[in-house]
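Researcher: For the record, we're logging two predictions in this thread. I'll number them. Prediction 1 follows.
Model: Prediction 1, sequence and structure:
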Amino acid sequence: MKELSSSEIRQMFLDFFAQHGHKIEPSASLVPVDDPTLLWINSGVATMKKYFDGSVVPENPRLTSSQKSIRTNDIENVGKTARHHTLFEMLGNFSVGDYFKKEVIPWAWELLTSDEWFGLDPEKLYITVYPKDKETRKIWESLGVKADHIYEDEDNFWDIGQGPSGPDSEIFYDRGQEMNNLSEDDPENYPGGENERYLEVWNIVFSQYNHTPEDTYEPLPHKNIDTGMGLERMVSIFQHARTNFETDLFLPLIRQTEQLSDGKKYNDNSEDDVAFKVIADHIRAITFAIGDGALPSNVGRGYVIRRLIRRAVVNGKKLGINHAFLYEMVKTVGEIMQSYYPEVLQNADYIASVIKSEEDRFNATLNDGLALLNQVIDDTKKANHGEVDGATAFKLYDTYGFPIELTREYAADAGIEIDEAGFEAEMTKQQNRARQARSSAKSMGVQSDLWTDFKEDSQYVGYNQLSIDGGKVLAVAQNNQIVDTAEPDGGLCAVIFSETPFYAEMGGQVADTGDIIDNHGAKVGRVTDVQHAPNGQNLHTVELSKPLKKGARYKLVVDRTRHLKIEKNHTATHLLDQALRNVLGGHTQQAGSLVEDHYLRFDFNHFGSVTDEDLKKVEQMVNEQIWREIPIETVETDINSAKEMGAIALFSEKYGDRVRVVKIGDFNTEFCGGDHVTNTNEIGIFKIVSEGGVGAGVRRIEAVTASDAYDLLHEKEELLAQTADILKAPQVKEIPHKVELLQEQIKELERQNESLQGKLTSQQANDVFGNVLDTSKGTLIAAQVKVPGMQQLRQLADTWRSKQLSDVLVIATAVDGKANLLVAVSDEKVKQGIKAGDLIKAIAPSIGGGGGGRPNLAQAGGKNPAGIEDALSQAADFLN
């Protein structure tokens, strides 16, 4: 058998299908774009949904990719099995309505067995097929696959609910009897069973049915192919590895962990081996996730990253690594994956800084968690409960990052158990919350061919002209049907013209609006929205006032004023993007944008907040480019030439062979298909309205330009003028001085007020402290006083303690419908067992509240001031 590296296997797969007419799709970001149904990209086909449901027609119906993916549904199993990972690569080839079984099955066999390619021994390959899919079985047999190497399995039907579905065929590799972990007569000892001998390496899905909302299976308008081959599994075969972890994808990470550990070695101890595997697996996922813009947090994707970091840190402690170490492994991940993912090494310093910050934070938290766990174990043993309750175990897991197995291990050492059922109940509640937070949108839409087969060319001319005469109607639809004439009383219609000046929404820029006019000058309808049809034409949504006919020609007029405002904001967005990179660092990536006519919104990935100083620098830098009067240059070129120009590309966008590049002098160059001004001076002025966080590691800036910026500044000027008038400042520039004088006056009044309050408190102290009550456990002073709040109660307690006026003090006050209660106990009585916390807990219910504190001082708050008298009475009862 050939010995191939992981990079050679990946490239060989892609090269094979490229030779068979497939376009190689780059690995998309792990963070899904415009897909609220997914937390992460979890398969190769996840990035192809728009092609399979017909919403977009690809330039080439044959596609292939090596897609990085994350699955987190059973993180706890990572390291315990031979092939379970959070991050993995899925090799795949896809056909969107092009080839089908007769092409894909021979290609799969050729790739696997041909000496020119993988060159695997055909005798070691086994196939499973869906029992009713006789055609697939015959094709395999025609290729020379023996009948006893083909198994029928009812599970060979791919169906994820509503959307494309169909039978599939899986390919297994026989790793030999030495890898068998089952007896010969075990029912799972066959290709497709749960065993270690037969390794599934490829799944070919024949997507030929629509699973409809009515739960029926209807033939697809176009049959598709979707395949998936796990790269890690294939590497384990070619590198003769018992598990995926003994391959060039993981071993360098395991060796580095050995060096970082306290003398631990991989393969020396099965328990340690799990820790090595968890660390190697998790650092890959963490590195790629952060590199693609996700950041640690307490929600969504950020929670997953935080959890992975914490699991890796805990497993590091098992190996004797008691300091931050994961961040040191980022460059190793980058070096392993450099051939296909060079961006990891390029961003290694930034990724490492994020991980280091999170590690440092968790190491402090971990110590707190250990302290809590030890306290819980002590309390449980004292109470003779016999187990740690599930809610506490889940708090350790959720708040402090303790895996349940770690809590179980610590508890077992102390001879107690965990309430597993209670823990699982809390876990289920959290999972339900997460599911409810996820969109209810369909995972993949039912395929529709209303516009899929419409392929006539339509040209966008809006870069140069905003109105045209004679735009011909190529097609029109109303009520989801293609019609020859759309009527005003039939509702909105969708229209494709031969050429159009109307921009279709894309890249954050909103669609143009405007009018459709007939050859008599009469208005036929209003264009309210423009989107892209599956084959890329601009699809206009029109509100009709007169009938609109297929084949007729109309004058199309874009709302010019609105369009020019959008242009200004779009160019300003490019300037803002570059300014953020320059000021905050090259790691800053666009995470979304919206370019409207009256404002722009720009989301970007950034770890931490943006200081006021940096925000001012960004705004100043954008305005400097506007005032430099830089001509805007647009170039259409091939994608490689664009990259050589230094053009910035977005992970979220797919680019064809020809791309449009927008160049703003030597300041910024980006891939962009949108509309822009011809010179930065047309923007006039740029003003940031707001900046803040909108998600885990995602910041948002909203800004305005031109007349909207003027309006904003004018509004602020009016506000300053009103403020000056209120402050009686002759000029606006004197406002700060006037405010300073007011602040000094306020401070002086506060000082006077505090002095008066102190005198009043002292006067009350003389009245209160004179009434000492004898109880069986010591002397007591208990009274209600009239002071502003808890601070004054504490001042009275300080006076009481310094003068040693009684053994116990209980004082209360009522302020604004609320009650404050304070208990103080002398040090001598604390030693005798009288604790302020016990007393406050006993009397606080009377004021409708609760509290706590130290043994010598405790306080409580409540919503029932009328209960103060009862609380004071109960204090005396408590001491008798």
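Researcher: Logged. Prediction 2.
Model: Prediction 2, sequence and structure:
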Amino acid sequence: MNLSLLRGLHVCIAAFFLLLAPLGSAHSHAAPAATTVASADLLIVGATEAGWAAAIQAARGGVDSIVIVHDGRWFGGQFTEQALACVDEDKGVGRVGWGVDWHPMKRSFHRSGLFKELMDRIEAFNTQQYGSPMPGRPYHGPSTFRPAEAEAIFREMIAPYIESGQIRVHWNLFPIAADVRGSRLHGVTFAATDGGEGRLSVEAPLTIDASDWGEVIQVAGAGFLCGPDPNSRFGEPSAPDDLSSHPANEMNPITWAMIVAESEGETPIGRPPRFDDRNYPRATHFSRQAFANLQWDQANPGLGAIPHWPDAGNESPRQLSVYTVRRIVDGTTSRDGKTSILLNYMNGQDYPLERLPAPVADALEATGEGASTQNIVTMNREQRQIIFNDAKQHALGVLYHLQNFVDQRAGDKTNSFRRFHLSDEFCTPDRLPPKPYIREGLRLQAMYMMREQDGRNRDGVTKNLAQERFAHVMYPDGLFAWQFHYDFHRTGRTYLKSEGNDGPWIDFHKPNRHTNFMSDRSVFPLRSLIPAELDGLIGSQGNVGFSSIVSAAIRLHDQRIHIGQASGAVAVVALREGIDPRAIPYDRALLEAVRHELCDPNAEGVPLLIWPFRDLDPSHESFVAINRLAALGLLPIGPREVDFAADEPATAAWLGELHDRGFEFEPSAESEVTRGEICLQFWDQVQQQGWTRLAFHRIDDRDADGDGIADRDDPLLFTPNEPIVFEIERPKLGPDSDGIPAAELTRGNGGDLRLIDFRGPGGSPAKGWSTDHGDAFDGERGYGWSRDLRSHHRRRHVYEGPRDTFLFTRDRDLWECKLPNGKYSVTICIGDSGHDQPGQNVIVEGVRFAEDLSTVAGMFAERTKIVEVRDGRLSVELGKPAASSNTAINWVAIEAAE
């Protein structure tokens, strides 16, 4: 790429098409004027990050004729046209991988495959352009980029295959019909997105659906799912028993991201239609005062995390600032001294898809009865646009709110959002990205549907402190490694009781849609790319076989590229062998041929990580051998041996285990041999022997291993097993750790007992309990805090009663209660029903109740001690100054001591 062309590029995407004219005009095609018929070996619908990766992988694999059809003009999906310009990558507690200096949760795998190739180029460009591979220096430390600049890099990487004629691209077209004969898809017909009369019909023996909403799957009549799954469907422990409170249109919300760039002076936007400041309590300070008094029609929606207002003098990671958390270019590093920021989700910007506002619902109903309760997946493009338009206005309301309603710290206007304007790089009339960020869409009914219990961590702990190990199920047809937490944003929408669906709303976490646990280190099965019944079609992007819960964990930037690369490799082997992809998981030679396309030391590009080792870098000489042997089950790997240690000496015991798996080894007299070197030798032997010894033996067409579990429900195709029942290893809870007040406490002692439940507003306290919402001390009420902590409450929807809610601090805070002087028996309960909380501290009247005490999710610490009040107030000190963790208080019981 000529990086000088992109230097300082802050203009609309049209400039890119001028700069890259040989790529964009000579080899791409506008909507045809009349019906045109084209043919290809492989049709890819969607130039998303997965569609782009599938095309490059297929081209490298030797597919001669590839056609890409896209409903826009951008390569890159969430990287570019959806403007998610801070890279989310596979996460875990592993500290191996580039970039962990910023945050230990990031990059638990070394980058590999096409994702690494792309990110290497993006970060090289950033280094030349901005002097840093991560020019935004955002809170979590991910790589950042300007979407238009990243789009040019996507184009640069695919350009050689377009220029050679191997890949042809058609823009601004979407699927309207499919040629299905019998049980096979033979082609797809497309119409112009601008409503023109032209049609394009593409005939191909194989099609990959990498579109945003699975449009080929829908027009071809393949089975699919959307919306919540009940527990009865896949037996998932976190799925609801029934869907009475989870309507069919409930989904992980969309978000219309915004890129704002620093201006020379003030550049405020106009007031968006139907703007109501009460929609944005998460983006403000003063709305918190009024929020506690608002009555929503869903109990306890909560505010969730409320970011602090920007403070130029505080760059602490704990300062979750609107200004810094998604900053993509920091003015201190950019040559023009200007800052650019991604505004996305954390200020109430998410747009839930259930219980739509009345004007949106009315507009949808005008298109057809029942349209307002229809899932967005099955809507037509006109109906989706109605939702999109409102989601845009809601997002613009966040920026308008920040520019007009947020008080500045100490009168400092330096970081005021009034000095920022919407970036013009998208070349859209409203300066917003062409598409919203899509977290959840269509789910292909595939040969196998990935379930929560297959990969969820089994220690019963959350994303922060999950112990590292491999998943309970390591699919025999795994194609790439993944790990993430099951991340649902707030799927619910609640309105003011007094105004209903015509008034303001906020989003909130619903039960069974607020999960905080990690997956274990997992692999993605080939079967989840293949429709259960229709031939000639491969799923990609988000249109693959997993449950709604699992979809929340497999949607990151790298995962989507890996899915695309895997679907492209499957297409290569299927076309080369003249078979349908559904045959591949049952044939060892075919499966290994796919893995060879993805993980081959002699192939073009960087090999892909198949087995989720934490410490294995693709540049290591034994990377391919270790991956391929592990995927074959030929390496002795314990469930927690997440580091392979390729450069460690090969021990006699380990060599003995390899010998049992077929490795013939003669000790070297020259030097000590490493584990990696042994794997290279073993892998050579395996390849020379061929696949006969390791061939799959299918007992039955519907139950390959004859274990009584049909293949469609069997994660382990050739390993007889019992149905997987999810049983997590939870700590045993006793009366001092269950968070439930003891019976003798709740009975009281002649009226001398005070029971305080620390919780957010909404709902009714249990009989005999008072509530504390985090208000400052009030003499008439008789208790309260030394400062306003009303934004520091949480509810987890895990348990009933006061143990499910808490107030927290990450500093030192003081709570006091007016009491006559004397001695009191005080019981304090700290902990969190949904998260681990390490390092908690509590002191009551100088008596230490907890010092750096840690509780895991669902476990509490109840401590009772005698204290003495000497000044008319019981004083509870919570936390400690500049703490790096929370102290969470659930309830307190105070009783006069005998």
